[in-house]
Amino acid sequence: QVQLVESGGGLVQPGGSLRLSCAASGSLSSLNAMGWYRQAPGKQRELVATITSGGLTNYADSVKGRFTISRDNAKNTVYLQMNSLKPEDTAVYFCNYRKGLPFRGDYWGQGTQVTVSS
After folding, report:
1. What one-character DSSP code corresponds to residue 73?
2. What is the predicted pLDDT for the residue at 26?
3. Handedness of CA 58, 60, 65, 68 (dihedral sign)
4. Sheet with 2-7: strands ordered across
5. b vs e for 77-100, b when ≥16 Cβ sit within 10 Å of the residue's Cβ?
6. What are phi and psi of 40, to 5 degrees?
7. Separation CA 117–CA 70 (nearest Å)
8. What is the pLDDT of residue 114?
9. Separation of alpha carbons 13 and 115, rounded Å
């Protein structure tokens, strides 16, 4: 029903930057939130950042001041600019699309690997 195509993951040195993109297509909702979650080895999936169709953002404390989420509603695309990357940011990053309000369902991308290592 909703397809999410991610891009931008890869290998980067500590202190470097990456920009993730996720384009949504299919049966979309005018009211929605898009965002990024990540899962590191041995850990639960956690929220990184979200942004609603109205522009309201939410960030995990661990990425505040380093990551910036934005979106282009005309392109149904969400971006995550990641600066000052740390080894602790290494994870599989998943794009999320949530239909609402009220809540009507979650959709997930396949995930893209981000590795921060020297």
Report:
1. T
2. 97
3. negative
4. 2-7, 18-26, 77-82, 67-72
5. bbbbebeebeeebbbbbbbbbbbe
6. -90, 160
7. 26
8. 98
9. 8
Nearest Cα neighbor of 57 from 28, 84, 83, 34 is 34
Residues near 82 by beta carbon (within 8 Å), at least 6 away in sequence: 17, 18, 19, 20, 63, 66, 67, 89, 114
Tokens linked to 33: 């939130």
pLDDT tens digits in sequence order for the chain, 118 residues long? 899 999 999 999 999 999 999 999 999 999 999 999 999 999 999 999 999 999 999 999 999 999 999 999 999 999 999 999 999 999 999 999 999 888 999 999 999 999 999 9
Residue 43 token pair: 């850990």
Report CA Rg, the chain. Answer: 14
Cα separation, 86 vs 62, whole angstroms: 11
User: Contact, 89 vs 71, CB < 8 A?
Assistant: no
Strand extents, DSSP E, 1-118: 2-7, 10-12, 18-26, 32-39, 46-52, 57-59, 67-72, 77-82, 91-99, 105-108, 112-116
